[in-house]
Amino acid sequence: MRAQGIRILPGIVWVEDRSQTIIVNENAVSSRVLTGYEGALWTWLTQRYPYTRLLRFSRLALHCTATKAQEQLLCTLQEWQRLGLVELEVSNG
Amino acid sequence: MANLVIATPCDMGCAYCFAAELRRNGDPPFISLADFDSRLNFLQRSGIPQARFIGGEPSLHPHFPELVQRARQAGLSVIVFSHGLMPPTALECLMALPPEACTVLVNMNASNLPTGPTHQEHAARIETLRLLGSRALPGYTVTSPAFDLTFLLSAIQQSACQQKIRLGLANPILKGSNHFLHPRQYRFVGQKIASFAPIAAEAGVRLEFDCGFVRCMFDNREMDTLIRAHVDIGFHCSPIVEITTSGNALHCFALGSQFALQLEPREMCACLAADLRTEIVQRSAPYRLAGIYRECSNCIFKERDECSGGCLSHTLRRFQRVEQ
Asked: What is the pTM of this model?
């Protein structure tokens, strides 16, 4: 399973601080603080990097195999989708 | 507290004015007497003992003396935020109030000119301070690192007004283009204020901080200096709640319509200031994790609630969003 398209949803704003990224969901009036790998992944998303590059960067950042990196990447993205931060288009393959 | 916008026009043209959005968004220029009575009722119901008049220039309201009289009849003291060059009728009605029931915060650097007040404007303001006496509290908005507060000491000595200076920082309008003090200039401004505080104290004048100051404008030695000079120190940014002529409740002028509550007339007849404030605080809370600097969200002073992280309008300008 892989995410074909990933889109940050309207109403999501963020600020990159010295050691963390603060995400505010303007629709839900809620916030989330991202650090470490999550913070880095968010920055890559804002750069609109393609999934293959997200996967490659995740593998390098997490120092793990491609399979493990894919698991972690999808898990994080699906969590963000559940929170209403991003929209994913997932396909098998 | 709650501030009542009673007039949106102003005959000054301060480049740093953060009330400019009021004039752009089509609010009525002057509050009607009927709406004003509703606001007084709102203040009384909310247990607020003061009617705080803001604008624009509040004294330009054609019925300003009537508004002051109605506020006094409602048992409220009156606070007016003014540029100090008010119409004679407005000045006279304030001079007639008991000093303990009236404070006029006079912005000493309001001007039509980018270079600041003319000699004539400055002289006229000193005369306003003199006529108002202890009712007058001089204020100064720091708009750039090149400022000098010493002229205020002689103005205070000449006029027998309150022995205080209310210091403000020029904050940005969130969706506007006013001239404002950039946070990277704050440290230098802090040094200058810390140098001036003992001079003011020596002259018997106490400094007070308005909103938006941050703790890191001052090092520990400068903080000691401020404390010894009895400066009224505050590093806060929180909504007072400004009620516009159209009846909307704003966090503050700088944030404009962001977090604003649009109140129907019947809601204005039933709501309480504390409830409006709570609602606005809740709406703005997620953004307060951040501050004006990248370091704010990990700052020990912010963690301890000793500093709010500066003006929220500055902070919100740091947030990014995806272009759709």
From this structure: 0.94
